[in-house]
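User: Continuing from earlier, I have the next pair ready.

Assistant: Great, send them over.

User: Here they are, in order.

Assistant: Folding the first of the pair now:
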Amino acid sequence: MADAVEDTNQVEMAEDDEVMETPAVADIPANHTLYISNINEKIKIEKLKKDLYDMFNQFGKILEIICTKTYRLRGQAWIVFDDIASATAALRQMNGFEYSNKPFSVEYARSKSDTIQIREGASIDKSARKEQRQKRFEEDEQERKKRKKQRVVSHKSLAGSGIAMSVIALQPTHRQEPPNNILFVENLPEQATGAMLEKLFSQFPGYKESRLVQGKGIAFVEYTTDVEASVALQTVQGFKMTHEN
């Protein structure tokens, strides 16, 4: 293991300079770069890079591991191999591999990495890269401010007392599936009723129905689209429904 850790120093660990396109279709041609999604977002970037190297270097020489801290690209990574055969072997063996309680989704990346393009004689426009990084940074800052503002509004307009309930969006089992429009609600008090849930969640556009699981303190809330579900999630997260729990 010590040798593997030392070897990671020879691999370029790009973070913000380069982010390749995520796959949009299943039949992407084999190439040097693998796109990995469904990674546990709580793992710190440096640990993630080291763990990915330790797990994937058995299949061949790794040239680059790309992870970013930006909001929209959390839970994703790109691994660039020295040859396509190594990337293919890694894809076959590691797709579905469970890491930190979540199975990897591994695919070929849709575009070539800068490393491979330069090796093949292409030139990279560094000024364009800089503009892309700045744009991503600004968009990420706007998203963070928007979410912070929504949380403040939530606490001012909906705050009750008691233990806060937890709301998450159900995740699709495969990357090709669309984002989920169903919210999973837990930590509900015993006094919670279907009517109470409907009153809370129906104030948001796209509400369809609430399904309370009696005696379990959990419920499922469905919206027409994942975007509408996301708006409701961001607003009611942490809402305290009753005085007791």
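And the other member of the pair:
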Amino acid sequence: AAAGGGGGGGRNLGPVEAGTMYQDALDKTFELKGSQPVPVAAASLSTRQFVVYRFAVHVVTLLAQHLQVSVPQVALASALPAVSADLGNNHGHNAFGRSFFVQRQPRLTLFVRVERLESAGDLLLLLIHCMAHLAAGQLHRDTDPVFVRHLYTSLRVCLQDLFHRRVSDHQQLAAVTAAATGPEARAAAVDQALALCTAAPPPAAAGEQMMPPLLGKLQAGSAAFDARVQTLQAEVARATLGDMTAQDDLRAVEARLQRLQREHAAASKQHRG
């Protein structure tokens, strides 16, 4: 059975409903129902959703290392359980209480609503929030000073990781700054290089076009894999057909041999007579 979860729906939100605490706008639209999370298989995701899901796994692993907590398995769910004393998931003072659920047995698992995959930024914020709560040892109160401390630590870790990844991807930063002479020239060169590093990506279109380069590679790989599967299936079909033909030929030979044996037996009997 699941134990110790996320969630805070139903009529048990308390102060959140009264407007005294922040609750995520999308989180307000979710409903908690049933007694267990309803898992969503990663294999059923679109290419873009799968990329975002793998990003979530990376972020959770990164934060767990820095917060020194166990790394939870990240799972997706189409529905999360209703508030229950047995589950301990009455977390009305959590801004994302209806968007996640923590199951501790048989393995620590962080269930996240599959709808959260539609925005990588929203998902990142939710994961930072969840991991800070796990590090604080409680999931129900956003005003806990220990949670707030871990929240800021998580933000720092993610922002630092983002900086290093963006800068390391642009070797031009080191090149232009090294070539510049004088304080003003160096400052201008750094500003120019950083503008390249931190330039916002073009506006994302809906659906599969939100990550064109990466999606193109993944889709090409998927198409190649599908083509290989079809080729192998055709080879198996030909081999099967060939095997069936060989079996038919063998049966024909056996039938002819039996006919010859009968004819020989009949001729021998006639000769003796």
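Worth noting for the second one:
The chain is about 55% helix and 5% strand. Helices lie at 47-67, 120-136, 145-168, 172-179, 183-198, 212-272.
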